[in-house]
Structures are given as structure tokens and as C-alpha cells.
Design goal:
Helix content: under 10%
Order of helices and strands: EHEEEEEEEEEEEEHEEEEEEEE
Distance between the termini: 140 Å
Largest sheet: 6 strands, mixed
Strand content: 25-35%
Number of strands: 21
Number of helices: 2
Strand order of the largest sheet: 8-7-2-1-11-12
Structural class: mainly beta
Radius of gyration: 36 Å
Length: 273
């Protein structure tokens, strides 16, 4: 019987396989169309719905528009209108409004020196009105005014946009360059002088020509209190309005008296008209 034969194992080592390089197909991103940039060229800046006491609404109301952009606006290039929602009543806007400038629309453009155009409709003091701006039949701006009647405390104030874009009542921007200015104010005299005797307001004429004070009023915004001025103020001199022009401590110092006082513990706003 022959001995069994065990065959030697056969080891097969496969040759290494190097895969062919795969070149990915180029990916072309879809084009991205940026959203259009809307440039606001016309906006409501401020409105005076209820002028200070003594000035009728039909004379003193006005609305100020502005071009806040860096581009001039041709109002004739579109159908631009300023509207009061109640009614509704609208005013066609025309002409050019330069970048950063203002357009003043007055109830009576002969009352102020700063009016550009006028409107023949007014604003409601009791309930407030909604003002709108339209272009080619599309409303693009509006604001609803708060009441401005006497009890509201907003007489003589303007409805205006603050730095954050929110509307509210505040002091109106001066629209005229006056010839006189407020120099100093003494709202709380030292003891034992009472406020009713010692308060005073000093005005000055910083120009090179005399000024007829008969064209001016000195006002306290709170309560709409005003005092007519009179006389002539020569260049570089001062005009003193005293709470009590007959106060012995100010003998020869006061030019005129005013019957209303100034807050000591809260701010007061003084205005020249």
C-alpha cells in the first residue's frame, strides 16, 4: 500500500489593481440674481397739525417731505401724490427734489416764508389723520397722527420721525433762519429770589444789521405760551425778557416782561417765532 501523498498548497497572489482615476464632472452653480435694491427717494419728514395758540389751522398747518437718498428726484417722472386718507384728499407733487432736501407743503403758502406749495385741505386735531404718499397708484408710505388738540398737550408740536424711524410728537425743525437768537436763560434764581421775580431770558442780535423785534415772538412750548416782542435790537446787543420786569433787583436790566414761568425740575423748551 503506497503512502498517501499530501500535495503542497498552492498560494496565488493576485497582482495589485490600480483603479483608473475618476475625474468628477464640473459643477456649474446656478446663477444667483440679487434682490433689487429699493432706493427711497421720498418720505414724510414732519407735519404740524395744530399750530401754537393764536395761529389758525388754516394758516399755520404744514407738512414736510424729504428726499433721504443720494439721488435727485424728478417728481414729474411719476405720478407722485401726498394724500390725506380721510376723504380722501390728495395733492399732486411736481418739480425736482434734490438729494437731502425738503419739500414744504403749507395750508396757506402766503403765511410762512418757507412754503413750496399749498394744499386746500386740513388735518384733524381731535382724532388725528393718516397721511399717505403714492406713486403711480401705489401707496408706499403712510403715518397716522396722534391727537393734537389742547388736552393732548401736543399743540405747536410736529409729528415727526425719530432716528429709529418711529413717528411721534416733538419740536418742529426750524424752517427759517432768524436774525435773533437765544443767548442765555436763568430758570431758577438763587435764594431768596423767587422764580416769579428773578427768572429771565436773554436774546441777542448776532448779525451786522438792526432787527425789528415786532416780527418776533418768544414762546414756551409747554402750554403754547408766547410773548410778542417789540422795539429794535441793534447788532451785537442783548434784549432781556424778565418774569417780572418791575423787580427792584433788576432795575434798568429788563426790556420786557413775560407772564409765564420756567420749570426747575423738568425740561422746558423755548422757541423764537
Amino acid at each position: 500500500t503506497p503512502a498517501p501523498i499530501t500535495p503542497a498548497p498552492i498560494v496565488i497572489t493576485p497582482a495589485p489593481v490600480t483603479p483608473a482615476p475618476i475625474t468628477p464632472a464640473p459643477i456649474t452653480p446656478a446663477p444667483v440674481t440679487p434682490a433689487p435694491v429699493v432706493v427711497v427717494q421720498l418720505a414724510i419728514y414732519e407735519a404740524l397739525p395744530n399750530p401754537r395758540n393764536g395761529v389758525a389751522d388754516t394758516a399755520g398747518e404744514y407738512i414736510v417731505l424729504t428726499n433721504p437718498s443720494m439721488l435727485d428726484l424728478d417728481l414729474d417722472a411719476g405720478d407722485y401724490q401726498l394724500c390725506r386718507e380721510r376723504g380722501p384728499r390728495c395733492k399732486q407733487l411736481t418739480g425736482d427734489l434734490e438729494a437731502g432736501n425738503f419739500l414744504v407743503i403749507c395750508r396757506d403758502n402766503s403765511f410762512y416764508d418757507f412754503c413750496d406749495i399749498d394744499i386746500n385741505w386740513g388735518l384733524d386735531d381731535v382724532t388725528g389723520d393718516t397721511l399717505e404718499l403714492w406713486e403711480d397708484g401705489v401707496r408706499f408710505e403712510f403715518t397716522t397722527l396722534d391727537p393734537s388738540s389742547g388736552p393732548s398737550g401736543n399743540v405747536g408740536l410736529c409729528w415727526k420721525r425719530d432716528g429709529s424711524g418711529v413717528f411721534g410728537f416733538d419740536s418742529c425743525d426750524p424752517r427759517e433762519i432768524g436774525d435773533i437768537a437765544i443767548l442765555e436763560v436763568y430758570p431758577n434764581p438763587r435764594n431768596p429770589v423767587a422764580d416769579s421775580n428773578g427768572e429771565y431770558i436773554a436774546l441777542t442780535n448776532p448779525t451786522m444789521a438792526p432787527v425789528d423785534l415786532g416780527d418776533y415772538e418768544l414762546c414756551r412750548q409747554r402750554g403754547g405760551k408766547c410773548e410778542d416782542l417789540s422795539g429794535t435790537l441793534t447788532p451785537g446787543t442783548s434784549f432781556i425778557a424778565c418774569r417780572n420786569a418791575a423787580f427792584a433787583g433788576y432795575s434798568g436790566f429788563c426790556d420786557i416782561g413775560f407772564p409765564w414761568g420756567l420749570h426747575d425740575s423738568a425740561p422746558d423748551t423755548l422757541e423764537l417765532y
